[in-house]
Amino acid sequence: MTAVPTEQHSLDEWLAYLESIHSTSIDMGLDRVSEVAKRLEINTSSIKIIVGGTNGKGSTCAMLESIYLAAGYSVGMYTSPHLIHFNERIRLDGSIVQDAAIIAQLAHIEKARGEISLTYFEYTTLAALLLFKQHNVDVAVLEVGLGGRLDAVNIIDADCSIVTSVNVDHTQWLGNTREEIGFEKAHIFRAGKPAICSDPEPPQSLLDYASNTGADLWLFGKDFNYSGDKQQWAFAGRTQRRNALAYPALRGGNQLLNASAALAAIESLRDRLAVPIQAIREGLLQASLPGRFQILPGQPTVILDVAHNPHAAAVLAHNLDGMAYFPYTHGVIGMLNDKDCDEVLKNMGRRIDHWYCASLPGDRARSGQEIANKITALFPADQDGLPTVTVYDTPVSAYEAAQEKMTDNDRVVVFGSFVTVATVMQKLNKR
């Protein structure tokens, strides 16, 4: 769609328009979006928390949202990408924003931008900020899309910033080393404001940037930490200790690290946003985020995880190891060609007995056959003929083939990209 849509057009038509009008889908830089933001007067009195990092951003945002809602605050949350519906990206008080409200803001941005060209992500970031201002939320939780320094979310001066982890991903934009990537992500820190880092081994570049900027840096293992047993866990911050906490509803071994980052941020803002211990307990139990080590009810066991880089795959592998015994594990995988497929597969190791390799749609897609070739090279079949490796045109056909082969005692893990998980999730939702 190239003609400018109106408020009578559908959200899908608006999104197609946004995808068509800028020369590239990713155009790092703040000059264009900052100028349009100035025209829109997006400044708001809300407490703003920006969350960046390679992995764990979405989970940390979800826990912050849930805890602040349980404490009685009005909360806006902006995350990306979405799994199935675009509206998942923008939430007000725990509910996704409806089409008409988003369209109204996109139309407002379209009029304000004039001659300035914006990317899809820049438009939608501005739309979220306008909605948060319109609804006068107490807290705005914003997830960085890519990196930090030149990401559109970074036009906001955060009252508190969080970097969850620093690992190698998006190398064409952020650099090839943790030091380069850490430098990019650290740019969401602000002078005199709390800057939370929950990476247990932060790169020196992040530490240096925080120091040079004058940010109030909170480091995991120094300024905050956690401990726990099989029944409950506890958080220790600079001045507060939260005891007898139930484990987060979000599953996985890394979720206590993400929860600790959220609680450190909440402690750092306690003078402006008081949060009682009961709200923390309730919030952790109610937080939800589809596709993050999501285990579906029933048999056979189905696990959905958007893990698509080496670090996330290592966490997924650890979480799989922590589950009960299963005779066979079936893996449905589909990946994009700009992700480190070899390292993702190496981190999964021989945990998968039967591989179902799916091709994905689009220019960035990696073919199922290419993934299958890598698996065969990395993991030659043993004396029992495992692993088996088969190729499919789509994630749905791969998942259906796994269903036919599985017994009720087996498990299947669907992973490799947001697209892979979303496609299978849509199939499951139609049951």
Automatic annotation (TrEMBL):
Q: Which Gene3D superfamilies match?
A: Mur ligase, C-terminal domain, Mur-like, catalytic domain
Q: Which residues form the Mur ligase C-terminal domain?
A: 291-418
EC number(s) per entry? 6.3.2.12, 6.3.2.17
Q: Which ranges carry the Mur ligase central domain? A: 51-265
Q: Example GO molecular function term?
A: tetrahydrofolylpolyglutamate synthase activity
User: Where does this protein act, in terms of pathway?
Assistant: Cofactor biosynthesis; tetrahydrofolylpolyglutamate biosynthesis; Cofactor biosynthesis; tetrahydrofolate biosynthesis; 7,8-dihydrofolate from 2-amino-4-hydroxy-6-hydroxymethyl-7,8-dihydropteridine diphosphate and 4-aminobenzoate: step 2/2
Q: Which domain of life is it from?
A: Bacteria
Enzymatic reactions: 7,8-dihydropteroate + L-glutamate + ATP = 7,8-dihydrofolate + ADP + phosphate + H(+); 10-formyltetrahydrofolyl-(gamma-L-Glu)(n) + L-glutamate + ATP = 10-formyltetrahydrofolyl-(gamma-L-Glu)(n+1) + ADP + phosphate + H(+); (6S)-5,6,7,8-tetrahydrofolyl-(gamma-L-Glu)(n) + L-glutamate + ATP = (6S)-5,6,7,8-tetrahydrofolyl-(gamma-L-Glu)(n+1) + ADP + phosphate + H(+); (6R)-5,10-methylenetetrahydrofolyl-(gamma-L-Glu)(n) + L-glutamate + ATP = (6R)-5,10-methylenetetrahydrofolyl-(gamma-L-Glu)(n+1) + ADP + phosphate + H(+)
Keyword list (alphabetical) reads: ATP-binding, Folate biosynthesis, Ligase, Magnesium, Metal-binding, Nucleotide-binding
InterPro entries, per database record: Folylpolyglutamate_synth, Mur-like_cat_sf, Mur_ligase_C, Mur_ligase_C_dom_sf, Mur_ligase_cen
Question: Where in this chain does the entry annotate a coiled-coil region?
Answer: none
| NCBIfam families, per the entry | folC, PRK10846.1
Describe the family membership recorded for this protein in Swiss-Prot or TrEMBL.
Answer: Belongs to the folylpolyglutamate synthase family.
What role does it play?
Answer: Functions in two distinct reactions of the de novo folate biosynthetic pathway. Catalyzes the addition of a glutamate residue to dihydropteroate (7,8-dihydropteroate or H2Pte) to form dihydrofolate (7,8-dihydrofolate monoglutamate or H2Pte-Glu). Also catalyzes successive additions of L-glutamate to tetrahydrofolate or 10-formyltetrahydrofolate or 5,10-methylenetetrahydrofolate, leading to folylpolyglutamate derivatives.
> What is the designated name of this protein?
Dihydrofolate synthase/folylpolyglutamate synthase
